[in-house]
Task: inverse folding
């Protein structure tokens, strides 16, 4: 881990400032923790302490929710992201693997097309489970 990564991983922020920075409620933040999207550190008094990486993740989750992606879709995107950063899983990739940007672009396209034509997505068996 580089010095920058270590600093970004340091648990520095209690939940109050995180709520202000992300415009999320404490309940939303706890909900995302329950779904293991973030893992804040705990103090001896059991208070959550968040890192810059946790805040980035919360902002990313918030953006995805705003785009209409539900929790199952978010977990799927995060799993893909973890595959890209895990060297063991990276070696097992197939020839044509989509990047996170490709997946996001496809999800946005599906949302726009579904809204534009007032129809279900073009691949309902595959994509509908990711949207509200």
Result:
């Amino acid at each position: 881990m580089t010095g920058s990564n270590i600093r970004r991983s340091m648990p520095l922020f209690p939940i109050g400032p995180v709520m202000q920075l992300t415009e999320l409620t404490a309940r939303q933040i706890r909900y995302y923790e329950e779904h293991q999207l973030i893992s804040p550190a705990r103090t001896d008094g059991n208070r959550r302490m968040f890192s810059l990486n946790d805040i980035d993740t919360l902002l990313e989750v918030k953006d995805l929710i705003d785009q209409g992606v539900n929790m199952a879709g978010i977990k799927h995107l995060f799993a893909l992201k973890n595959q890209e950063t895990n060297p063991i899983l990276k070696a097992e990739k197939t020839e044509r693997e989509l990047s996170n940007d490709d997946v996001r672009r496809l999800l946005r396209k599906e949302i726009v097309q579904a809204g534009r034509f007032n129809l279900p997505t073009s691949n309902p068996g595959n994509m509908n489970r990711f949207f509200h």
Q: What stands out?
A: The first strand starts at residue 41 and ends at 42. The chain has a mean pLDDT of 80. The helical segments are 3-9, 15-22, 26-34, 52-66, 71-85, 87-91, 100-117, 124-127.
